[in-house]
Write a structure and sequence with these properties.
By secondary structure, this protein is of the alpha/beta class. The protein is built from six helices and seven strands; from the N terminus they run E-H-H-E-H-H-E-H-H-E-E-E-E. The longest helix is centred in the first third of the chain and has 16 residues, at 25-40.
Length: 158
């Protein structure tokens, strides 16, 4: 029986992108190692929303990852290792409501909510996933003690 996990976009990003600053090189190594381990484990399937597929590819494009690598990732998403979940309008409405309540940007909700009820673990270094709205799955930070939030330099958890 497979275990289903969500791997947040920040892990994909740090796994595929070269560090801009030497002091963050270890984060990239930890993310790459975690991603490789999760993807090679035959007992784990990765649940991912169609929204997140697009988000990952766009983040990697903006970060300078070449077209061939991005196309390879898309091809991999089409394999049995991945369970792709569509983004339904009801989920978008729920995400909008909860994002307004929590003041956490909607993108985290659009990554996680489509796979709610499917995944039992979320691999992310974004501490927004500690919010009670995401308590439907265990949070695992594979780059601990680092916290990774969009638009903010990595920082150590206090």
């Amino acid at each position: 029986m497979h275990s289903y996990v969500l791997i947040d976009t920040n892990i994909w990003h740090f796994a595929f992108v070269k560090p801009r600053e030497e002091k963050f090189a270890g984060i990239h190594t930890l993310a790459r190692d975690a991603l490789e381990e999760l993807l090679s484990n035959k007992d784990i399937r990765v649940a991912i929303s169609a929204y997140q597929v697009a988000e990952i590819i766009e983040v990697l494009r903006r970060s300078g990852v070449d077209q061939e690598t991005r196309e390879g990732i898309i091809k991999d998403f089409g394999t049995g290792k991945f369970f792709i979940k569509s983004l339904e309008f009801d989920v978008v409405k729920e995400a909008l409501r909860d994002a307004a309540e929590s003041n956490i940007h909607i993108y985290d909700y659009l990554v996680a909510y489509p796979v709610k009820g499917v995944v039992d673990k979320i691999y992310s270094a974004d501490d927004h996933f500690k919010h009670e709205h995401f308590s439907f799955a265990e949070l695992v930070n594979p780059v601990e003690p680092w916290v990774l939030r969009e638009g903010v330099k990595p920082f150590r958890e206090r």
